[in-house]
Amino acid sequence: MATHPAILGRFFEDYAVGDVYQHPLGRTISEADNTWVTLLSMNTNQNHFNAHLAQQNPITNGRIIVNSGFTVSVVLGISVLDMSQNAISNLAFTDIKMNHPVYVGDTIYAESICTGLRRSESRPYAGIVSMITRGLNQDGDEVISWKRSVMVATRESGIGQDYFPMAKTGPLELPGTPAGETTGESA
């Protein structure tokens, strides 16, 4: 039996320029998601929450359009597991492009390509990872894209590692197994 430590994501050494990361989670956008984010962020554009007014919008064929700030947040969040789980600082977002409308009921996916790597000159425990990320809807339409750079911890730094607490009651074991004995099925 093995204990798998609480480690998520990649460290600086794990990236390679040209590698594409198809992020494993998708997210279906609900009406509540769109309305809440729009109102919480005090976005007063009624195309995000007023169906009657949105009927006049020729770009959306009269449909309520999802708040683009929410689309950015969802795609960014989807990419974190692969691209910035162990980041210690966001450095830049550039060239954000809204390529296709997002509507309530759309499911958003994301993928990123590593475009650059370099060790930090001022912080020896980290490196800079540059990437292009894009969001796709369920039909494969590219809905958003951007360039991004993050500072990511190196594995040797220890940052983002060994944070799981030691149980005061000792390690977790299978019930009924005498100490030091392992279980397993024979062939």
How many H/I helical runs?
3
End-to-end C-alpha gap: 17 Å
Order of helices and strands: EEHHHEEEE
Output the radius of gyration. Answer: 22 Å
Proportion in helices: 10-25%
Arithmetic mean of pLDDT = 92
Could you state the oligomeric state of the chains shown? single chain
Structural class: alpha+beta
The main pleated sheet reads as: 6 strands, antiparallel
How would the global form be characterised? globular
Unreliable segments of 5+ consecutive residues:
none
SS strand fraction: 25-35%
Question: Any overview of this molecule?
Answer:
- The protein is α+β, with helices and mostly antiparallel strands and 187 residues long.
- Helix content is 16%, strand content 28%.
- It has three helices and six strands, in the order ββαααββββ.
- Strands 1, 2, 3, 4, 5 and 6 form a six-stranded antiparallel beta sheet that branches.
- The longest helix has 16 residues.
- It starts with 19 loop residues before the first strand and ends in a 34-residue tail after the last strand.
- The mean pLDDT is 92.
